[in-house]
């Protein structure tokens, strides 16, 4: 009975790049939803290390960040006994299906990806082909597991749309190959902006440390970063497109406390940015405290992390190989 029920559960999948220590943006935009979905869905979560090398990485740092992000996934409350938690490079089917999907992705549609355009500018010295075909690898991540829902921040919506186009195109040729995935973008925290340039999204690979709150920052550092966040000269707390800095801090405060923008405006009526920023900092510290405590515990136990990663890779590969085999057969590759 249990078995049949779990088989019927909808499949949820999402990955995060080990391109640095995850930020408050990753947490509010994605991770916070992940832990909540684990109970009701058949969930797979992964560390997208293949994606991370589209930008030059220092080998020792890539290895360390991969383990750190893995530990963070466990710290969110995800359970490796229940969810499949894996490292992308350990599951070769991802790279294999990605090649196939590359051949069903049009040059024009890949050229329209905002992330490609942005990263080509921010890494102008290394505009590699991997950066360009990044969305085909992401589509492979998703389609391999026949995912129904993909919880991501708003910045990934365009990649999801491309994934759907590829799936639809291939299903048109090879009936019933892939499940059509839906993005799952939580309202709160869908786009947390940089603290220093609030027109840009908060990003863990931003070279300016002050632009993001890392999930591992101490309470002191969090308070300092929020205190120095860019605001404006009109010292009044209200939400407006003309006040991106203050509006971003209100969004963060709202996510951490559950209060609406109206309630926040009322709370800080007649008060300046000093009081407001102190309250935001405290709310962020409290929000992250339990995750940080569990994270430190997990990171101290490398043997356990490696054991979980090995188990996750095996489970993921078993599932992924079914879809890959089906695709290879339908496309016409020789069957042995
Ligand atoms: P990088 O800085 O290396 O590009 P990233 O932090 O932007 O990395 P990922 O690590 O791949 O990107 O993101 C993991 C998840 O966090 C994704 O679902 C993404 O949509 C979400 N996310 C990333 N940045 C933000 C943000 N500023 N606000 C909300 N969600 C975000
Ligand atoms: N591209 C995503 C990370 C990512 C992902 C995925 C998210 C890689 N593969 C599959 C969801 C599903 C990013 O940069 N945020």
SSE series: HEHEHHEHHHHEHEHHHHH
Task: Tell me the strand order in the biggest sheet.
Answer: 1-2-3
CATH class of the largest domain: Alpha Beta
Report how far the terminal alpha carbons are from each other.
Answer: 36 Å
> Which structural category fits the helices and strands?
mainly alpha
Largest sheet report: 3 strands, parallel
Count the strands?
5
> Mean of residue pLDDT?
94
What small ligands are held by the chains?
A: adenosine-5'-triphosphate, L-tryptophanamide
Keywords:
336 residues, mainly alpha, Rossmann fold, Tyrosyl-Transfer RNA Synthetase, 2 domains, 3-stranded parallel sheet, two-stranded parallel sheet, 14 helices, 55% helix, binds adenosine-5'-triphosphate, binds L-tryptophanamide
Question: What do these coordinates show?
Answer:
There is one protein chain. The chain is mainly alpha-helical and 336 residues long. It has 2 domains: 2-189 and 302-331, HUPs (Rossmann fold, 3-Layer(aba) Sandwich); 209-295, Orthogonal Bundle (Tyrosyl-Transfer RNA Synthetase), CATH 1.10.240. The protein contains 14 helices and 5 strands. The strands form 2 sheets. Strands 1-2-3 form a 3-stranded parallel β-sheet. Strands 4-5 form a two-stranded parallel sheet. Helix 4 (59-75) crosses helix 13, helix 5 (93-102) packs across helix 8 (129-144) and helix 11 packs across helix 13. The chain starts with a helix and ends in a 5-residue tail after the last helix. Bound molecules: adenosine-5'-triphosphate (ATP) and L-tryptophanamide. L-tryptophanamide binds at residues 13-15, 17, 48, 51, 138, 141-142, 150, 152, 156, 159.
